[in-house]
Amino acid sequence: MQRSRVITAAVALAAVAGAALWWQSPGTDAGAPAQGLGALSAGASAAAAAGAAAPSGGAQGSAVTARRSAAQADASDPLLVQGLRDTLEALLLEAGDVSDPAALKQRLAALVAQHFPPDLATRALALAERYVDYRVALGALNGRAPQDLGDPRALRDALQARQQVRLQFFDSAEYDALFAREAELDRYTLARLEIARNTALTPEQRAQALQAADNALPAERRAERAAATEHMAAAAQTAAFDAQNASAYTRHQARSAQYGEAAAHALAQLDRDEQHWQQRLTQYSQARAQQGDQSATVQQLRQQLFTSDEQQRVEAALTLRKAGAQAAGS
Q: Which of 149, 181, 187 is nearest to 49 (CA)?
């Protein structure tokens, strides 16, 4: 389970660092209700970061700045904190495969207390319901995704369209909590793309422009971008090891050479944690298939196999597993 979280986070960060935007990922923000909002959220963690881009410059840049200032003035709001969007996506993930937005909202109402304290639950549910409406509205943009993701103008237009949808559903403080943190990285990504596609620049001018873009990025965002690259490399390497059924010795040798001995041991522990998690999921899934979800024996097994924290993630994990199996078979 721990390694799954690491890989999910790595994919999400890499989506920002490498401009892998929302329309590139199957079952993310662009899903329409007919596709099943629960299935749509199977890729929710990656979508949370990948769907946070905002256009750079111009009037839209000013609007983003204004929203950020408004949110900073309301920084004491305990609901609008960093990680809020991840929490909403986790709610959608746990709600499961629901094709009707109204039914999905009913499920969210039953789950919201698991993610928010009682004094925030009412506001959190109202925000989550608007987040569902926002995700549905994005379905209408599905056909407007740029054909060439390397075309800065098409990319900017698509981001602008998505930005307009966001402004319909969220106020200034909410927007900042949900989207503004990643917007800096996305504006940086778009700036780099524009520089790379500018044929009027000499190699020296291009290098200077890229360096200027790097310098304009806040130090915290630069650190996140560097970490994203490292995490994504480790996640890709682990995925390759899994596909090859590589031995623990092979994994350790490669990792220690690339990341150091301490990191290699840590990654090996994550491998073991993930294997144990998957084994428990399989045991529980098989028992549930044989005896039914509400069987007393199955409920007891659930208590035995998973901690209280893990039990909140079991359904989401099984949904992800099912989605992965379906994708592999298609």
A: 181
